[in-house]
Amino acid sequence: DEKEKFEPTVFRDTIVQGLNEAGSDLEAIAKFLDATGSRLDYRRYADTLFDILVAGSMLAPGGTRIDDNDKTKMTNHCVFFADEDHDAIRNYAQVFNKLIRRYKYLEKAFEDEIKKLLLFLKAFTETEQTKLAMLSGILLANGTLPATILTSLFTDNIVKEGIAASFAVKLFKAWMAEKDANSVTSALRKANLDKRLLELFPANRQNVDHFAKYFTEAGLKELSDFLRVQQSLGTRKELQKELQELYFLLQVVLYVKEEMKRNELPEPAVIGLLWTCVMNAVEWNKKEELVAEQALKHLKQYAPLLAVFSTQGQSELILLQKVQEYCYDNIHFMKAFQKIVVLFYKADVLSEEAILKWYKEAHVAKGKSVFLDQMKKFVEWLQNAEEESESEGEEN
């Protein structure tokens, strides 16, 4: 018994022999697995156990069968050798249900096994893929498996060859044969997969029209309709968010203008305060490689506000100096300076005249050499663009 517990090949031989003796009697197979778990280490050899129950033998990385040439180490009494029929696969699903109910600790190991098998799909024949899809769909329907197993289908090598989409269609059909479309869409939402279904297709086909056509032709119109609704809701939410942000910015603009009037504040004084407020509104990432992206996203949102209060050349220069000082004082921003200036230029917060004046004479001492070096190419581009427009004007 000790040898059986800790020797994988003995474990395999015991399982294979028991399955072969039970034959096609699934009730006998379930009883054998139940009884054998008390003397074999299912916890340690869960992957071997499930490999044999699904594929009939142990699997090597990639999905090839380790004992393919030795029939004594294989069994035909497994999912891959079952009839390609929904009822036949459902009967096998019951074997897994009973086993996992009896040995609860196998639940996570079984989930990991199915995720692994989905990554190995290329190694299996089309009929084996179909049976695995049916088994997965039935077990998803009865709750033995979570919808998160589907993330394995988003792997590049099976997506590119069309295996992921084909497998998903068969899986969803089996799932809906057990339950209904609502159970599928509800589980996808809970697992945050409802917006990722397009990833079943290669990048050049990741659009709603292609998905809808493919799934409708496969007899899954309910899922194509579901995706269309999800996309529509997503677009609506994004628009709503943009409108809320615009309304917020409008409120801030009106408030600041009132304060300027009441306290007789000049625009150049206000732009510096606004910059400080905007930058203090965020908890910045401590990693230099991430902070630039975070800053640009944040500042893009507030660029329209800054543009309202940088209409004078002096205001623009003060803003540039504030940005320079901030990037110098906060070391993670050192490399982000040029990107911020270019963003503000494109968003009409800063004019080329202000940038050129800052570069030539209006910069501050803090980090001067670093920031001037960062801006060199962009300034050259601005100067060339200015010269070209002047020469065009003279020609006209």
TrEMBL record:
Its main location: cytoplasm. Residues 229-392 form the W2 domain. Keywords: Cytoplasm, Translation regulation. Pfam families: HEAT_5MP1_2, W2. One of its GO terms (biological process) is regulation of translational initiation. It comes from the Eukaryota. It is found in: Cytoplasm. GO terms for cellular component: cytoplasm; membrane. Belongs to the BZW family. This is eIF5-mimic protein 1. It comes from Pygoscelis adeliae.
